[in-house]
Amino acid sequence: MQKTYDQPSYPQLGHIYPGDYYEALPFGEYIDPRQPLPEGDNVFDIRRFGAVPEKYLLNTDAFRAAARACEAAGGGTILVSGGSYWTGAFSLPSNTTLFVAGDAEIVASRNMAHMEQSGGAEGNEHGADGFLLIAHAQNVTVTGGGRISGSGEWYVYEPRQKPSLTPFPVTALPRRDQAREINNVPGTLRYHYRQRIRYAEDKYGEGQPDLKRPGFFIRVQESRHVRFENIILHASMAWTLNLECSRDITVRNVVIDDNRHVANTDGVDVTGSSDVLIDHCFISCADDGIVLKNPAHTLRTMSDVHVKDCTVTTVMSAFKIGTETCHDISRVLVEDCHFCMPDIYPGTVSGISLESCDGTHLSDVTIRRITMDKVCAPLYICLNMRNRYGDPYTDEVGANRYWGGSIRGILIEQISAAEAEVPSIITGFETGKINGEKVRRPVENVTLRGFRVAYRDNPEYVNVPEYVPEFLYDYPESNAHGDVDACGLWVRHVDGLKLEDIDITPRSCSRREIIALHDVNA
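and the corresponding structure tokens:
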């Protein structure tokens, strides 16, 4: 059989710079590479199907043949051991364990021609199905103590600037009147981190064609009883682990070790899935670390997501709910986690980010016992009417997504954050109808208890407008509001707010109030 070697779609790419990966990641606290190899008749070693651990040699046929044999046997284990195996996309059937041994690695092709799934679920707006697909399946496990690597740097352009290993001296935000150029205002936090992100698109209008890349690294779709445990997911080329429209999913003792400057490399995306447990994971990535979304295409509500004992380091939001989310999300518990940015600058954009901008009704969220270090905004809660899915306008408030969704029933307690940079924000919105009638949509029933934040004591540049504009249609991000008239906690359009045991230590140079409340009812 003729050998096929991997040839990158974009051979000029693929560079790695100091600061791209978190070099001090404590793998030994999460991964056991000595997990015993499986034995028995239903163990399908990929080497039996012709796989060879030779650099750049594609073993796609062997991986797919092993999966077919496993399915024909009614289930079993696909064994990957004894070296690094390059392959194109493949999928796992029901009743299957993918066992990547501690001495082994699966490496994704750097060529889009090898990244399309043969069969399997249909693609969607994000692109190809993904490198590893679990679709319409049940009782699937990915484990073993080894590594699955996505070759992420090979699908995005070079950054404009290399990672920053030293802090920026002055904290500054772009002004709201600079909204059209909000990512390109030199000296601001947004500018510092976005100039270092590697995009697949021509983000800066330089005449470059958009690059093709998979929309997902690992995707679980319409499946049940799926478990990821004792596995390293490395160098994702897009969303790292997408749990979509599935139920009874466990992600435990998983390390996500992504390039922290490859755009859109979220850690774990829970989209339209319920009964999900994410437990004792370390996530290092370039976009939201753990994020819950419920887009229009899921056609369902989602609930009962539990995140605990996780460490997240990312340049974006450590834990987030929202964006591209119109169906409801409820019963979420996040506890005993650490959000941080240990080694590059600026820090994480936000630690806790709860958003409803495209119509979702978000309720019954508890977040407790969270520590943060070098997270710019510890807390961001935003309700607006961006209306991504385009419901037609009506004058009846609440009739559809034009007027936004809701955020209610939020308990956040025992939060401790060090080296913060910008204020935490909780905001609903107020606007008007064509006839001049006022529309007020508050965030409702928020308790913030035991909230302790100490700010980095560096110079800041602040330009607070006479009136902070309403944040109606913008993409929700804590540093997109511009400066506000509080240095620690800024709250507007909230009903049922309880603030208990709040301790905020501002910069020594700060002249703003520590807490500002506007249109807030207890």
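(Above: one complete record from the training split.) DSSP finds two helices and 33 strands in the chain.
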